[in-house]
Amino acid sequence: MKFSWKKMLVTSVACMAMTGFMATSYASYKLNPEVKDATPALKEAAEIGVRTYNNPQMVNVKNKDAILVMSFGTTYKDSRKKTIERTVQAIQAAHPNTKVILSFTSHIIIDRIKAHEGITIPDPEKALKELKKEGYTRIAIASLDVIPGMEYSYDTAVYDLYKKDFKKMTIGVPAMYWMGQEHQRDDVTEFLKAFSTQFPKNIAADEAVLVMGHGTPNPNNAYYSVIQNHMNMLNMHNVYIYTVEGWPSLETIIPQLKAKGIKKVTLMPMMMVAGDHAHNDMAGNTAESHKSILEKEGFEVKTYIHGLGENAAVRNIFVERANEAWNALEAK
After folding, report:
1. pLDDT tens digits along 95-153
2. Cα dist. 188→40, 60, 237 in Å?
3. pLDDT score of 27
4. Domain boundaries, the chain
5. Is the CA virtual torsion 253, 206, 191, 183 positive or negative?
6. Number of Cβ atoms within 10 Å of the Cβ of 261
7. How wide is the angle at C-alpha 316 spanned by C-alphas 315 and 322, nearest 5°?
């Protein structure tokens, strides 16, 4: 069997010459056409980017379409409205004639919202079962994840488990997925340019912005190194990323700050919502909070407690990713 990963081709639906690189309505790969005897395992391994499944048993079934949005969720009601719900509203506005459903992947958050607010937000599995019951046959899944970590693995697992229940199913990618690999776009640069619109202006030589990511046990925690590398390439002066539950940690960053003579820092979350991690782990008043740790180390600390969904430029990226899943659903 002859096969070359380097020669994998981009599935291109539209080419936007003005961007300077190959752009697609949805970015995914297909195997080199020389591969004539691809095994099921090889085909599955090549499912990168936006994924699509067509059910051969339901070819003649009438189309009835829906978009399922998957988010981790938050119990912080105010932030949820400003971030997740506002993003879902933007996706709905882009598809006014299509049913859009929100689901949360955190079962703990679902239970807490039900107990304290009396609101039932379905998990993705329940949402898909209900859509099936209502007669929907084609589903585009949109993710509100920032990187393809463990939460996105949940999303793709749901896709794999339920795709055969529908005529067609697609799943989009997180805000950051492609890194400028051969023939692919650079999501990291696109995201950082949007994210940086909320950075303080004119950061002085003794000031820094510390961006708090979540971190993941998934090997894709390595995205945080790529993000730092891209921030450096974009000349984002004195901007550092660290994570709550991954690497690099705050303790990794502090020595770098001291070595550069940093005296003042601004903390901000790089998370869809400003929830428990932002309010307590990052900006809380306990001795264990990042703010307190930095103050104990002699830094002057400011906090910016807003989720990514409040940033219009970032919110537009999530809408673009949802549109890619939709475009794949509509593609012949």
Report:
1. 999 999 999 999 999 999 999 999 999 999 999 999 999 999 999 999 999 999 999 99
2. 31, 40, 17
3. 63
4. 1-48, 50-177+313-330, 187-307
5. negative
6. 8
7. 95
Structure tokens at 122: 């379905």
The count of other CB atoms within 10 Å of the CB of residue 234 is 14
Question: For 244-268, how does the pLDDT look when each residue is reduced to its tens digit (9 = 90+)?
Answer: 999 999 999 999 999 999 999 999 9
Task: Identify which of 211, 229, 213, 210 has the alpha carbon closest to the alpha carbon of residue 221.
Answer: 213
Tokens 């537009």 -> residue: 316
Q: What is the DSSP letter of 8?
A: P
Cα→Cα distances 31→9, 44, 160, 249, 266, Å: 7, 11, 20, 38, 45
Burial (CB count within 10 angstroms: exposed 0-12, middle 13-18, buried 19+), residue 187: buried
CATH topology of domain 187-307: Rossmann fold (3.40.50)
Among candidate residues 206, 209, 200, 211, the one with its CA nearest the CA of residue 262: 206
Answer yes or no: same fold for 50-177+313-330 and 187-307. yes
Q: How many angstroms separate the CA atoms of 304 and 294, rounded?
A: 15
Is CATH 3.10.450.50 correct for 50-177+313-330?
no
3-state secondary structure of 266: strand
Classify residue 280 by its DSSP letter.
Answer: I
Local confidence band at 33 (pLDDT 50, 70, 90 cut-offs): confident
- Sequence length of the chain is 332
Residues 281, 289: contact at Cβ < 8 Å?
A: yes
Query: Contacts for 193-196 with beta carbons within 8 Å, 24 or more apart?
Result: 193/234, 193/313, 194/311, 194/313, 194/314, 194/316, 194/317, 195/270, 195/308, 195/311, 195/313, 195/314, 196/234, 196/236, 196/239
